[in-house]
Design brief:
Helices cover 45% and strands 0% of the residues. It has one domain. By secondary structure, it is an all-alpha fold. The chain is globular.
């Protein structure tokens, strides 16, 4: 869990609170610098082959750690971070 948000807000417990709430979010890649304003349209330009939600990934990481079929499906996601990939591979 990334501690940058907690460091930014001066709250060391923030990462734990986010994890407990299940609202951990995701990172997005910026392809082109620019300004985004309230009301601007954001367009999804690509879906991954495996449409696994953040909630599903969190479920497998933190709650249902022995769901081997789910872990195998998540490992098929190319965008999965190397740290998470290693953690899931060690469970198989």
């Amino acid at each position: 869990m990334c501690g940058k948000l907690g460091a930014y807000h001066g709250e060391p417990m923030m990462a734990r609170w986010m994890l407990k709430s299940g609202r951990t979010g995701f990172y997005a890649k910026c392809i082109e610098a620019g300004l985004v304003q309230s009301g601007d349209e954001i367009i999804l330009v690509e879906h991954g082959l495996n449409r696994i939600t953040i909630d599903e990934a969190n479920r497998l990481m933190y709650r249902n750690r022995d769901d081997l079929p789910g872990i195998r499906a998540l490992l098929e996601v190319p965008a999965l971070s190397s740290d998470w990939r290693i953690s899931f591979e060690q469970r198989l």
